[in-house]
Amino acid sequence: MAKNTICLWYNKDAEDAARFYAATFPDSAVGAVTRAPGDYPEGKQGDVLVVEFTVAGIPCIGLNGGPAIKHSEAFSFQIATQDQEETDRYWNAIVGNGGQESECGWCKDKWGLSWQITPRVLSEALSAGGDQAKRAFDAMMTMKKIDVAAIEAARRG
């Protein structure tokens, strides 16, 4: 186990989430699955309690803690993409698997976890500063899924 690991709270489906992430993102995998050694407020002995997994190289633990705690936009994974094809693939996987679209490249998976699917061209434009950053930013503000060609056109002016 890594010294610092992100712990994500799920109701009862941490393993399903981990398997989805592992199937969707490169450098992702499901590790150990630990079952509860006894009954607990939100589950029974033998239920999946903790799932170790990696998402795009980031070590995580999924804890099946019950319905009391919900994910919020205060935490998100940001996935940098190379082009529109990769942007579409991740966006469509998340939204198409029971997730929902949001604004400016953000979406939520069906477990309520937020994702930023961010093409590198957008990050580069914003980092460049000046008028091209403003134009790219203004274009992004009108989008749900990021349109790489529209960001490139806005950057050029």
Automatic annotation (TrEMBL):
Coiled coil: none annotated. Pfam families: 3-dmu-9_3-mt (PF06983). SUPFAM superfamilies: Glyoxalase/Bleomycin resistance protein/Dihydroxybiphenyl dioxygenase (SSF54593). Residues 3-118 form the PhnB-like domain. Gene3D superfamilies: 2,3-Dihydroxybiphenyl 1,2-Dioxygenase, domain 1. This is PhnB-like domain-containing protein. The lineage of its organism: Bacteria, Pseudomonadati, Pseudomonadota, Alphaproteobacteria, Hyphomicrobiales.
